[in-house]
């Protein structure tokens, strides 16, 4: 069975909600829709306070090249357009809508049947994806239509669909593959058509044997799509690691995956593409896992974007008294929330309720030069050195040591026996170095 | 045997002498003529190499002053007027008198004024915390209390007050080099005029939010009401982005604005007064509640 070679760790999987079917969450009374939910230039608001909006109506239009549209996820009245605290506690421009009903825009196909016939041309597909605000749902929220436009001189030859879900606890992709497998594979065919590639590979870790079996069976009906089981290893869901695991090719330092002829999309994205192209439905909902040892009833929900996370936790039966931290995302790469009133955005893959004892940070000791961090780094970096360089602010050397190649998977941090906050400092250094590099380019 | 030693001595002396002659001429040819005044000037400077003057160190500062030929725009924050007048004497120029300055922390979000809502357990550096989140009190402008400024101070003029959770500037030691200003990721610290008898008035808040959200996180936040602007007889206060700012060049320390402020975000420092001043409140807040949070 395939996997990537360099580094990697094996955190306990804890897929508590793997066998819980996706539950459609009822509409929240109020939704908070941040105007910017993607990587890139912020979008501009096109509605006013007091406007009545329908489900699926455009709220904010993309501006600039790397940007994405944002749509209303409910029908109702716009109560406010103002700066609201986001996941990090900073303010972000947000459209607040009082929900009244769930009346969809006329041009959206709300029928439940599966539409199998791909009638649109390549350019029409990309236009639909862009119009419907589809972004990468794996977590980075990079606008999908930009990925579909292969830069000149490069050629895409393989589409990789990422069903790895290597983060412990999270099961949203797993459930999506089980329940919406066929739609997801149609979405994959659409993406193949848009890219002009003949072959697509779906990578799934073998801790989800039911998903591998289910999709392999379905894939028999689709031309060019093959399903591959992969050995469990974190961070296999990283773009570069998955390419390496499936094809053996390596993305050069500082370059994009297209250098190897591969384009990687998440299974959630493939499903969103299916909905956007076949049903003309904007990206206004997603599957979110609410899980963790402090969760009373770990569940998977189909949630409208903008639903407060507190509502989700409530629907999942609340928490027990041992709750320590609430994390948006998985335990390895997720970020602790500062407030539970923040909304679900396009990039929210899970809400993790951690126990008090789990969420304690390790006591920090001196580095003992055991080199464990080096052996687990999937990018072949030297995390202990990068940490030190970030602390002493030697950014020139940090750049030479390829700090920008770090994918922030946290394997080094996880494995460090001295409990050093390696990733925290590497992130700090990475931010500074990328700022320096950007300024240099301007000059 | 004797001959070998003699030859060795003679030949080495000959090589040495030739090399010395070559070196002498080369040294003459490539002689660096340096203004002797640079050394003299560098000597009277404090030698702290803090960079507060804007140059790479004391010697670079001295070189620039000597080469420029004027003292306009040059000021050593550490040596102050004494050092500059000595420099002026050496160079035969006139030094412009500069007002002594001091670093001022413009945040009063103590544990009592801005109670903790969440607790942070990441690395103790403001630069990282600032990238990560808004702060324990929730104020996205306020002090993070992790002490990057304290670490940056080379003169031991800052310490982190454990009771208030805020950095404190020791006025006697502060040389206004500006290292803390650069270290603070939120630009909370400002270099202001020290003022006569160290008396100062300033808005101790940099929150640009509207009144309600600002007040929600911190009791003593500037809410941008503009009362101080109206009452100021010298036009020294400016209201911009929901935040009042007192221009220390224009301020005449009349203290009219201080009682006007509804939240008490304008501080008066070192004024003799009947009632306890706001500065005392900064240093000695109602301790019980805050110490509990700390422990």
Explain what the structure shows.
The complex is a heterodimer of chains A (about 450) and B (about 300). Chain A has about 450 residues and is α/β, with parallel strands linked by helices. Chain A is built from 13 helices and 17 strands. In chain A, strand 7 and strand 8 form a beta hairpin. Chain A is globular. The mean pLDDT of chain A is about 90. With about 300 residues, chain B is an alpha+beta fold. Chain B has 2 domains: about 55 residues, Electron transport complex subunit B, putative Fe-S cluster (3-methyladenine DNA Glycosylase II, Chain A, domain 3), CATH 1.10.15.40; about 170 residues, 2-Layer Sandwich (Alpha-Beta Plaits), CATH 3.30.70.20. Chain B is built from 12 helices and 8 strands. In chain B, a hairpin with a 2-residue loop joins strand 6 and strand 7. In chain B, helix 2 crosses helix 3 and helix 2 runs antiparallel to helix 4. Chain B is elongated. The C terminus of chain B is likely disordered. At the A-B interface, helix 13 of A face helix 5 of B.
List the helices and strands and how they pair.
The complex is a heterodimer of chains A (443) and B (295).
Chain A (H helix, E strand, L loop, with lengths): L21 E3 L5 E5 L9 E2 L6 E2 L4 E4 L8 E2 L3 E11 L5 E11 L20 H10 L12 H5 L9 E5 L9 H8 L1 H15 L3 E7 L3 H11 L5 E6 L8 H9 L14 E5 H12 L6 E7 L7 E6 L4 H7 L7 E6 L6 E2 L13 E6 L16 H5 L6 H9 L3 H6 L10 H5 L6 H21 L1
Parallel strand pairs in A: 1-14, 9-10, 9-12, 10-11, 13-17
Antiparallel strand pairs in A: 2-8, 3-5, 4-7, 5-6, 7-8, 13-14, 15-16, 15-17
Helix pairs in contact in A: 1-4, 3-5, 4-7, 10-13
Chain B lengths: L1 H28 L6 H9 L13 H11 L11 H12 L9 E5 L20 H7 L15 H5 L5 E3 L6 E3 L9 H5 L5 E5 L6 E4 L7 H7 L9 H5 L5 E4 L2 E4 L10 H4 L5 E4 L8 H6 L3 H8 L1
Antiparallel strand pairs in B: 1-4, 2-3, 5-8, 6-7
Helix pairs in contact in B: 2-3, 2-4
